[in-house]
Amino acid sequence: MIGKPEWFEPRTSGWGMRPVCWQGWVYVGCTWALVVICALTPVDERVRLIMYASLIAFLLIDGTDIMIRMPKDERDILHEALAERNAAWFMISALVFWFLYQVLQTVLTGIVHVSWLIPIVLLCGALVKTATYWYLNR
Amino acid sequence: MRNNIKELRTKLGMTQEELARRVDVRRETILYLEQGKYNPSLQLAYLVAKNLNVTINDVFIFDEEKS
After folding, report:
1. Distance between CA B23 and CA B44 in Å, rounded?
2. Is the dihedral of CA B53, B64, A73, A14 positive or negative?
3. Taking the CB of residue B23, how many other CB atoms lie within 10 A of it?
4. Contact A74/B24, CB-based, under 8 Å?
């Protein structure tokens, strides 16, 4: 791929990465330039949509490749694990609270307000956790 | 757990960057170690001591009063 892991480091605020050298900033600059080109190019809107989709797909693939190959030492891995765990617990709590709120709304109004996607997502998360424990303890 | 990494490192004329490179971690990790904000794994502790030409006991001081 185009981006190199040594041009970036993991962000400590939110997800993703940030440049640490001029090559990384050039990569970011070129990305923004492509966004502007997509916006300003006089083409049919469907073509523009395809251009945006292609750019997003490329950034997702290249960005994922960079993140996977980014060197991390033991402290980076530990801190990342703790931060991701805290984020996951917050998101799980928010999903559970929202689902319970929807159930309460359903009970009070008699109209179904429940999004069954929420318990499905929570169940899938539980399965991922179980699989991770199984893999680590095998 | 306290440590003498900074003193031992400067005595050898070594920078944080160089020590980090030798033990294959980022410079920030060496900074955190010196500030006592991070306790290393046994492997990292051994590598740090080895590259500072001392034993682990010479580098890391376990505070038994707090344990």
Report:
1. 7
2. negative
3. 22
4. no
Residue B61 gets which letter from DSSP?
Answer: E
> From CA B45, how far away is CA B40, in angstroms rounded?
6
Contact (CB<8Å) B24/A73? yes
Cβ pairs A/B, distance under 8 A? 17
Q: At what angle do helices A117-137 and A74-109 cross, to 10 degrees?
A: 150
**Helix intervals (H) in chain B:** 5-11, 16-23, 27-34, 42-51, 56-59
Instruction: Please tell me whether the interface predicted TM-score (ipTM) of this complex is above 0.85.
Output: no
> Which residues, 6 or more positions from A24, have their beta carbon under 8 angstroms from its beta carbon?
A7, A8, A18
pLDDT tens-digit readout, A65-111: 998 898 889 998 898 899 999 999 999 999 999 999 999 999 999 98
